[in-house]
């Protein structure tokens, strides 16, 4: 076994191409050199390192799966591996890139006009424009079909009224993809709202005990007038918004593995170094080895699941319920790995000297956002039975 990568218990690397391994190694190096040294301080300060945005863009990580427009055109597996390595640094880092690319940019690419694509995608790929995705509302998270934000036709444009919350990147975004119901038909539509538009404002959410190195905002729309050309022409119906979430959840399923790997490797090194009971490393004890074996097993299973789902996506054969399976399992797995790793580190596990508690706090959110475990359970159940049990 390669002792520098003890989490690859099953030889997972053998399933990857040279290009896929190169993508992973490149992002891993960036995270190790540019993000990891300041990760604890960023979490403590509640700050996202906006100074790294241009470097992330140089790696081709924004809109990584999009072809053209200055984007990298990566495969789903390559994209997943980048998410894995970003979340090894912090869930907030992965979330920034995921929202920029898989939600905001993918929405514009999939549902926008060619004029909208040409205007925004190159700017966003280069990191010169940040985007956000406004779907969740204060009273409606798991049930977006009940959104209260409304769009009223007015002359040659629309007037938007409503509020969105828990929006990653919201206050620094130049462009927001906002979902609203048309007043005259109740049909869900997607709109582009630019920063500085009269009636559009943002405010950051404070007091978070999780995802502290991530910018989380509320969006307020009060008689916000936008021109007709800011409507995404193909973003019609809630299915369009949920399709964007499927892309993002794919990245989350991969990202969780990175957080789990960092926790596992931290615990493994700690248990080899920590001496107790006669000067022996605590890694020599049965109960400790049982925990490490559990972690290695679950991480390996999660990797195989992510790899298979990624391959299905690349083959164009992916169903959204399969992404629910991935997100549900891997978010649970990563949080449980973090909790067990914290236990092995004892009191040291709650200090910022080690990344474990930070990952554990973040993963409490990751397990919940973009579909709670229960919602994904019901999505899987509907696929199995053909019966919807959401209401």
What does this 3D model show about the protein?
The structure is a single chain. The protein has 391 residues and is α+β, with helices and mostly antiparallel strands. 49% of the residues lie in helices and 16% in strands. It contains 11 helices and 10 strands. The strands form 2 sheets. Strands 1, 2, 3, 4, 5, 6, 7 and 8 form an 8-stranded mixed sheet that branches. β4 and β5 form a beta hairpin. The N and C termini lie far apart (49 Å).
How many helix segments?
11
Query: CATH top level of the largest domain?
Result: Mainly Alpha
Beta-strand proportion: 15-25%
Radius of gyration: 21 Å
Spell the H/E element sequence.
Answer: HHHHHHEEEEEEEEHEEHHHH
Annotation, overall tally of beta strands: 10
**Alpha-beta classification:** alpha+beta
CATH homology group of the largest domain: Butyryl-CoA Dehydrogenase, subunit A, domain 3
Overall outline: globular
From the N-terminal CA to the C-terminal CA, the straight-line distance is 49 Å
Mean pLDDT, all residues: 94
CATH architecture of the largest domain: Up-down Bundle
Characteristic key phrases:
single chain, 391 residues, alpha+beta, Butyryl-Coa Dehydrogenase, subunit A, domain 1, Butyryl-CoA Dehydrogenase, subunit A, domain 2, Butyryl-CoA Dehydrogenase, subunit A, domain 3, 8-stranded mixed beta sheet, two-stranded antiparallel ribbon, 16% strand
């Amino acid at each position: 076994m390669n002792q520098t990568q003890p989490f690859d218990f099953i030889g997972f690397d053998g399933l990857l191409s040279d290009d896929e391994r190169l993508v992973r190694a490149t992002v891993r190096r960036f995270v190790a050199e540019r993000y990891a040294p300041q990760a604890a301080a960023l979490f403590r300060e509640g700050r996202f390192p906006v100074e790294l945005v241009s470097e992330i863009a140089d790696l081709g990580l924004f809109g990584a799966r999009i072809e053209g427009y200055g984007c990298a055109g990566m495969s789903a597996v390559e994209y997943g591996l980048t998410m894995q390595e970003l979340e090894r640094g912090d869930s907030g880092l992965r979330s920034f890139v995921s929202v920029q690319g898989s939600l905001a940019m993918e929405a514009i690419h999939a549902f926008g006009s060619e004029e909208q694509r040409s205007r925004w995608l190159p700017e966003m790929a280069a990191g010169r424009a940040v985007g956000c995705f406004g779907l969740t509302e204060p009273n409606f998270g798991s049930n977006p079909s009940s959104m209260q934000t409304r769009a009223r036709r007015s002359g040659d444009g629309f007037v938007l009224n409503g509020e969105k919350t828990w929006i990653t990147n919201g206050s620094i975004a130049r462009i927001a993809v906002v979902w609203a119901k048309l007043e005259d038909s109740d049909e869900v539509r997607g709109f582009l709202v630019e920063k500085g538009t009269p009636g559009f404002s943002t405010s950051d959410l404070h007091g978070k005990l999780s995802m502290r190195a991530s910018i989380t905002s509320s969006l307020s729309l009060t008689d916000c007038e936008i021109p007709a050309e800011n409507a995404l022409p193909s973003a019609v119906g809630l299915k369009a918004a949920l399709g964007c979430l499927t892309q993002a959840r794919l990245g989350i399923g991969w990202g969780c593995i990175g957080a789990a790997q960092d926790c596992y490797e931290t615990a493994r090194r700690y248990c080899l170094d920590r001496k107790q009971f006669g000067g022996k490393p605590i890694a020599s004890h049965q109960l400790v080895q049982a925990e490490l074996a559990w972690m290695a097993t679950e991480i390996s299973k999660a990797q195989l699941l992510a790899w298979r789902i990624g391959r299905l996506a690349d083959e164009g054969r992916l169903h959204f319920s399969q992404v629910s399976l991935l997100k549900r399992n891997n978010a649970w797995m990563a949080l449980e790995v973090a909790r067990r790793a914290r236990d092995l580190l004892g009191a040291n596990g709650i200090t910022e000297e080690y990344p474990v508690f930070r990952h554990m706090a973040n993963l409490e959110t990751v397990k919940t956002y973009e579909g709670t475990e229960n919602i994904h359970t019901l999505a899987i159940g509907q696929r199995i039975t053909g019966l919807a049990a959401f209401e």
